[in-house]
């Protein structure tokens, strides 16, 4: 199934069944006629609805989602990539309810996580059994389940799909013999995984870059070779090429616009107080429901934030093997993977806690402060920690299986399975007992003014006033035949005044809105768009002018060029990978 064994069909079916069982367990909370109300779930449900309504009005790709804020629109698609939401938005257009569309998305994410983690960990050790173990540990990690159901953190659990593939690419690129085929594969996988993270969750991509920098420092002698540097450059080109359609508009608004980004008004808040307690790091039975509370409150009201006992046992197992001398006669590659995953995993766990000196680093350097505050919560590092410690468990089990009797392997795997089953079982029971249940069939079941932290709005927008805002219409201007279709507005306007007048329309102003005016004899009239009261879109009607006006959001030419380059990058990558397979067959 994973493509690196010629086992019989029956054995393949057994592996498929095992992966499907993991998928089923991870998806149990979806097997109801309701959703568990995650912290961010309404925000992401609105993203799906807004994307569907944007496509319904003819926009593609959607940049301004029209469903938000009572129809005022929201540029969430510019700041938060919707690439992976398009399939479920199409389901929504086909008449599937909003909550069922969301459930399909979660199942697809679980499916991708199960098989990508199984493929990645299995390929690293050339054993499908190890791939199955890695898939089970990573997919069912309590912190990942928290992201799925407690937090409803769609961006983060989508980004977590790509951690195993990124880990596999690092193993390929840091291989001692620097074999050209492995370097090419590593470059492709690193580029694809980073592109996936960029287009899922920017904070996950930021953390991934931090991890890669630390790894480059750790392996500086191995990294600074022409072949490895070239492969790294190829990975960067792939990631940027595939992501250009999203990154160019994002950077355009970030650099030249004035919008709230990541709750910038809270940038003075230190994050260390939000870290995990040591007891949470070693927990077996932790909360499925809760908040991220300040450390002064204690951990009783927190949700699961630490990696948990099932992952921390890997360090104990590794030290026992060290004292027994098992590591002395294993290959250098195995030793290197074990040492790196142990050190990096421990570092990531430490960084997720309130014991890591985040506040000191913020005070040390303004650049550090900017990066750290964007992370928002130290426990975000738990996501990468479980990926790295899963790799540690895989190398431990692979070594035990190779060096010890079968009985020892069975005992260790049984212990892992037991602790994981206890943690997952407790999580599910707590979630069903204390989780708030909601039903959301359409946008009418939600509040469209649901943006988290008022991010991505024009700076100083007074959100509550949009509900009652009286839009400006200067005297002497008459509007007829007004038709609103998402972010498009068609109307007939007559300005009988001797002075130019202003009309404000029920749309939030983002750079890119463009108005076209034509008289009855098809002569073009210059209509200027402006940023109006409380950032409503305003248009200036020239004096004594009667014309038809069409207002729409039009992407700049360089956005379209970026979209073309991403499509071209994808085509070239597919052609290259297909050609490489053909070469291997020959």
User: What structural class should be given to the helix and strand makeup?
Assistant: alpha+beta
> Which strand order spans the largest sheet, edge to edge or round the barrel?
3-4-10-6-7
Distance between the termini: 22 Å
Oligomer class:
single chain
Note the overall shape. Answer: elongated
Query: If you compute it from the alpha carbons, what radius of gyration comes out, rounded to the nearest whole angstrom?
Result: 27 Å
| Annotation, overall tally of beta strands | 10
- The residue fraction in helices comes out at 40-55%
- Count of DSSP H/I helices: 21
Unreliable segments of 5+ consecutive residues: 1-6
Main sheet summary: 5 strands, antiparallel
Share of β-strand residues? 5-15%
Describe the structure.
The chain has 586 residues and is α+β, with helices and mostly antiparallel strands. It contains 21 helices and 10 strands. It has helices at 9-26, 41-56, 76-79, 86-93, 98-125, 128-139, 142-150, 154-159, 163-173, 180-198, 202-218, 220-223, 226-256, 278-281, 309-323, 332-351, 358-364, 366-375, 381-403, 406-434, 557-585; strands at 35-36, 437-438, 477-485, 488-495, 501-508, 513-518, 524-525, 528-531, 536-541, 545-553. It has a 5-stranded antiparallel beta sheet, with no helix packed on it. Strands 5-9-8 form a 3-stranded antiparallel beta sheet, with no helix packed on it. A hairpin with a 4-residue loop joins β8 and β9. α5 (98-125) packs antiparallel against α6 (128-139), α10 (180-198) runs antiparallel to α11 and α15 (309-323) packs across α19. The radius of gyration is 27 Å and the shape is elongated. 43% of the residues are buried. The model is unreliable at 1-6 (pLDDT under 50).
